[in-house]
Amino acid sequence: MANAAMKNDKDPAGLPEYGELDGIVGFHIRLAHGAVYRHFTETFAELELTQKQVSVLWLLGENPGASQIEIGNRLRMDRATTMTIVNRLQERGYLRRERSSSDGRKQALHLTPEGEKALAEAKVCIRSHEEWLKSRFSAQEIEKLVEMLGRIHE
Q1: What are the φ/ψ torsions at residue 11 (nearest 5 degrees)?
Q2: What is the phi-psi region of residue 83: left when phi exceeds 0, alpha when psi lies from -120 to 50, beta otherwise?
Q3: Which of 9, 48, 78, 103 has an alpha carbon 20 to 30 Å from 127's alpha carbon atom?
Q4: Whole-prediction pTM
Q5: Residue 137 and residue 58: Cα distance in Å, rounded?
Q6: Structural domain of residue 80, as residue ranges?
């Protein structure tokens, strides 16, 4: 009987209807995240960088000498994830570690010339990705969306 109901509750594309899921905000955030992630992955395929790797490069470009802990905290990543990303970027020659001049226990992270080049290329891809995303909204909607999403992640 459930299968018969499922067959009758299809959208024009033949997919099952969302039903009560349609009213679940988290469900729509997950679907939106999936769409944004897929487009990001396609846009960055040639650079072979993940969203998190780009974020780390970008933050280090803006904050040379930041520590691994500071970068991880800013991006709300755990230590293990941050370490893995930093190690991977270092292996690719995109950043280097130096002893912090203000705290000898910390390592300061800096972009290498290769890292600066990768970041410049990533920024071109980000502009393309952002154009795709923002094309779905008016300027006012974008401003409001950013503000509303900030309420969730801040």
Answers
A1: -85, 175
A2: alpha
A3: 78
A4: 0.78
A5: 25
A6: 48-126
